[in-house]
Amino acid sequence: MSLSFFGQVAMLARESFNKRSELMMGASALIISSLAAWVIRYRMFDYYENAKVGFFIVVCCCLWMGLFDSILCICDARDVLERDKFSGLNPYSFVFANVVWQAVHALLQTGVLFWMTTSIIEFPIETKALLAPAMPEYLVTLFLITFAAQMLGLGVSAIVRTSQQALTVAPFILIYELIMSETLFGLPDAVRPLRETTIVRWGLSGLGTIFDIDMLPWKAETSVKKIMRQVSYQVTGQVNGEVSSSPVGGLPIPFFDKLIARLQDYITNFPLNPGVLGVNHNLPEYTATAAYLGHVWAVLGVLALAGIVLALVGFRRTVEIR
């Protein structure tokens, strides 16, 4: 007689709570979250670059925790599953039971990451709400990123036959996610569409959209403005010095003070082409609208669904073949 869906969820819960791996999962989430938050806490929202790197690290934490939490859950129990299939194991019920249990894990890991980052990092309080207040949006996005990573790991775990194979594949998945997300550097046009398949790309877009990081100043802009301000003071100071040392230095010159002030203001606020500085404040992946955030959440959901389908197909095939 086969176990029902809820019976298999209950069985997974009992087996998991009897393992020390549950405690290790919570401890690793706490350590990873605290280290990441401590590293990126300093002036994270002062500049666009700081916010992008900070959220990239947060997304990588979600990817790491989710992937390695689920990538062994099927292949590690392959022999037991092979035995249980003769006692009525339903592959669909088993996979969906794992999906539910991994969702519980994702919620716990996300809660730890949310708590640590919001406790250590000073988030902007004036962020406008899109679909909900910023902090609930942030929590939901973290959960979707982690859950999508878990479903990717679940799919891999169902396809491979041993835990050694799964751990061999995992680094390649991480490399693909980090490189093909186009976060670290640009991609050739021929492979650029592949970035749409990465969890990192959509996770970073979601977090950047919530906090509208596209509107933050770039470091290049700020540095150039400081340089222009220094140049304006030097130029106007030199002009003042030349006039003072000239034969008419002691005579008042009409409108001279206003002329110097205008010269100083013009140099300080000289209109610069952002493209020359490599600055772009119209990045489509950070469109701060409710519609775009909903689109990002939907794509993360589709990526999670793709992992579930992969797990169903892979699990049924590998169990039946052996």
From TrEMBL:
Transmembrane segments: 21-41, 53-74, 95-118, 138-160, 167-187, 292-315
Keyword line: Membrane, Transmembrane, Transmembrane helix
The ABC-2 type transporter transmembrane domain, residue ranges: 10-182
Keyword Disulfide bond appears in the UniProt entry: no
Subcellular location: Membrane
Record-linked Pfam families: ABC2_membrane
GO molecular function list: ABC-type transporter activity
Membrane topology value: Multi-pass membrane protein
Keyword Transmembrane assigned: yes
Gene Ontology annotations for the cellular component aspect, listed alphabetically: membrane
Stretches assigned to coiled coil: none
Protein name: ABC-2 type transporter
Organism the protein comes from: Parafannyhessea umbonata
